[in-house]
């Protein structure tokens, strides 16, 4: 009886660990593909280097803390994530010009 009580939580724990071990590499691979697409677009002259875009956006963010970014290769747009006064702010920037084209809070 005692083995049955302990085996259920152990089974759930092992199942969760297995699911995470499968999902994490897939997520990392997706992020790598996004980075590769951004680099290819920059090398092909389709977008500005990310560091230049980030500097332009940072200058408009009034001291907000940068958290991360995403790149959409179909539109050559970056979405930068900031935290300001405890709230998340998403900023969309045109990868070709570095101009801010949208905000979301």
Which helices and strands occur, and which strands form pairs?
Layout: H1 2-43, H2 50-58, E1 65-72, E2 77-84, E3 87-94, E4 100-104
Antiparallel strand pairs: 1-2, 2-3, 3-4
Short description:
By secondary structure, the protein is α+β, with helices and mostly antiparallel strands.
The H-and-E topology, N to C, reads as HHEEEE
Q: Describe the main β-sheet briefly.
A: 4 strands, antiparallel
Helix content: 40-55%
- Give the tally of β-strands: 4
- Which spans have pLDDT < 50 for at least 5 consecutive residues? none
Mean pLDDT: 82
Radius of gyration: 20 Å
Report the span from N to C terminus. 53 Å
Shape: flat
Structure explained in plain terms:
By secondary structure, the chain is of the alpha+beta class. It has helices at residues 2-43, 50-58; strands at 65-72, 77-84, 87-94, 100-104. It starts with a helix and ends with a strand. Strands 1-2-3-4 form a 4-stranded antiparallel sheet. It is 49% helix and 28% strand.
